[in-house]
Design goal:
Layout (H helix, E strand, L loop, with lengths): L3 H10 L4 E5 L3 H13 L4 E6 L3 E3 L8 H10 L4 E6 L1 H4 L3 H17 L1 E7 L6 H4 L2 E5 L5 H12 L6 H11 L4 H14 L5 H19 L1 E4 L12 H12 L3 H6 L6 E6 L5 H12 L3 E4 L1 H5 L5 H14 L3 E5 L2 H4 L9 H16 L4 E7 L17 E5 L4 H14 L9 H7 L5 H17 L6 H10 L3 H4 L1 H11 L4 E2 L2 H12 L2
Parallel strand pairs: 1-5, 1-6, 2-4, 4-5, 8-11, 8-12, 9-10, 10-11, 12-13
Antiparallel strand pairs: 2-3, 7-9
Helix pairs in contact: 1-2, 3-5, 7-8, 7-9, 8-10, 9-10, 11-13, 11-24, 15-17, 18-19, 18-20, 20-21
Length: about 500
């Protein structure tokens, strides 16, 4: 990927009169623009409504005056305009820039708008180039760390740990994290790296709606879903360096559609564990609920996810996040879905997307198109073998020996129960036994199962419709899918 300064210089030299840099890192953007100007030995000035066009025209504090001053400066010249997206809402400013476009291009002048969100008038859209400033890469972070620790005796391994922990932060955020870590530990030991990691968790959750999910789950903690687990085991191998040499691209992701309470969220955690990568949960409701800034928030969150790769990104109940994106309903939701779908198709680096959905009627068809995800799995209610495995897991989790219970009979008695309902059978039986002053028995589990009304009875028609939808559209995540795979492998 080209460095931002080189990209701005290339656009400028090609005659682009306006470059729109979308970023919240204003100071970093200004330095990048200065570096681009240095490649031409060109003049550069920075405009704000309080400082004017500094240093050549400090009195030019109005947007129109800034444009006039930029046209009078000796060429080649780059005017860096801060927060100019607000000025572009004024038709007079847009008109003046449009009138000046031929002269800007012909004389080697360029206007670089630096703003935290994209707000480009239609009249300038065809003549402006939009550049989203990427987060600092490893080289930029390394230079920043060197400036902070100058003169300190810090081992190379410690530097590497701190740098790895800082991936996904802006330049200003990384600098603050480095300074705090250095004050806590002059040698930047494990505690310092942990401090940077904690700072990143806080910033990602607060600013970008990304939560780093820490989970000790493994495939053994997921009852049933044998086909899904086998598929993930194969994809985990494709995350290895040897897979690149074999010609395998990194796996892109999986979409899990199915009945509530059947383990889709746990499957997302298990997927990250099988891949051996961290899991980031993307809170779409928070990211997309920011009004005019929603598109920029989404872009920043996805850029941060790419910056910390290899990583798995979990989007829970994805159909709710893009509700209203259907034609004629919500233009903003449709734009956001388009941006997200494009990212799914073209994202760079080892980012594995895991999305879950309950309501297929609200699932945008764009997300079902091949290329967005590697596979679409349908998660059904567990069969008898899976129910037995789930009951066994929850008994073990609560320090009970599964062999002491008649799990085969219980599995049969719990037909149509979801995984979440099976867990409640175990928890309810423990409550009952504790109230009676003894340890839990099979009879307690059976009694609770008899009293519990499964979701299937209330939503039987909806569940049957979901099963019908999945035929020919999705791969079974459970044992049925595993049997089909077995026949496929053993066939001619």
């Amino acid at each position: 990927m080209r460095a931002p300064a080189a990209e701005i210089a290339e656009l400028w030299s090609a005659g682009t009169p306006v470059v729109y840099v979308v970023t919240a890192e204003e100071d970093r953007a200004v330095e990048i623009c200065r570096a681009a100007a240095a490649t031409f030995d060109a003049g550069v000035a920075v405009w704000s409504s309080t400082r004017g066009l500094d240093p050549i025209a400090p009195s030019a504090k109005s947007p129109l005056a800034a444009v006039e001053a930029a046209l009078q400066a000796p060429a080649p010249f780059l005017a860096v305009l801060l927060d100019f997206h607000e000025a572009l809402a004024d038709p007079r400013v847009t008109r003046r820039i449009r009138d000046a476009l031929p002269r800007l291009a012909a004389e080697g002048r360029c206007l670089a708008v630096v703003a935290p969100r994209l707000a480009l008038p239609e009249g300038l859209a065809s003549d402006a180039a939009v550049l989203r400033l990427p987060l600092p890469g490893d080289e930029e972070l390394r230079a920043l760390l060197e400036a902070v620790v100058r003169g300190e005796a810090v081992a190379p391994a410690a530097r590497h740990r701190v740098l790895a922990a800082a991936r996904g932060l802006t330049e200003a955020q990384a600098r603050r994290a480095f300074v705090r870590a250095l004050r806590a530990d002059r040698e930047l030991g494990l505690a310092a790296a942990s401090m940077v990691q904690d700072e990143k968790k806080r910033i990602l959750a607060r600013d970008l709606g990304l939560e780093l999910v820490e989970s000790a789950h493994s495939a053994d903690d997921l009852g049933g879903l044998e086909s899904f687990k086998a598929w993930m085991a194969e994809r985990a191998m494709a995350f290895s360096p040897d897979a690149r040499g074999f010609g395998l691209p990194p796996p892109r992701g999986v979409l899990l559609v199915g009945i509530q309470g059947c383990g889709k969220s746990l499957a997302a955690k298990v997927a990250a564990a099988q891949l051996g990568v961290p899991l980031l949960r993307l809170d779409l409701a928070r990211v997309l609920g920011a009004g005019e800034g929603a598109e920029e928030n989404l872009a920043r969150a996805l850029a941060a996810a790419e910056a910390v790769a290899p990583v798995a990104v979990w989007v829970d109940e994805i159909e709710k996040g893009f509700a209203g994106s259907a034609a004629g309903q919500d233009a903003r939701a449709a734009r956001l879905l388009g941006s997200f779908s494009t990212w799914l198709q073209e994202r760079a680096g080892a980012v594995f997307a895991v999305a879950t959905a309950n309501d297929v009627s609200r699932l945008p068809p764009e997300l079902l198109r091949r290329g967005r995800f590697d596979e679409l799995f349908f998660v059904d209610l567990p069969d008898a073998a899976a129910r037995r495995a789930i009951l066994q897991l929850h008994l073990k989790k609560r320090d009970r020996e599964p062999a002491a219970f008649d799990l085969d009979a219980l599995a049969e008695a719990c037909e149509h129960f979801s995984g979440a309902e099976l867990e409640q059978v175990v928890v309810g039986a423990l409550h009952r036994a504790f109230a009676l002053g003894r340890d839990v028995e099979t009879s307690d589990l059976r009694r609770v199962a008899q009293d519990l009304v499964p979701l299937f009875r209330t939503y039987e028609e909806e569940i049957k419709a979901l099963r019908e939808w999945s035929r020919g559209r999705a791969r079974a995540a459970g044992r049925e899918g595993a049997v089909v795979d077995l026949f496929r492998r053993s066939g001619p």
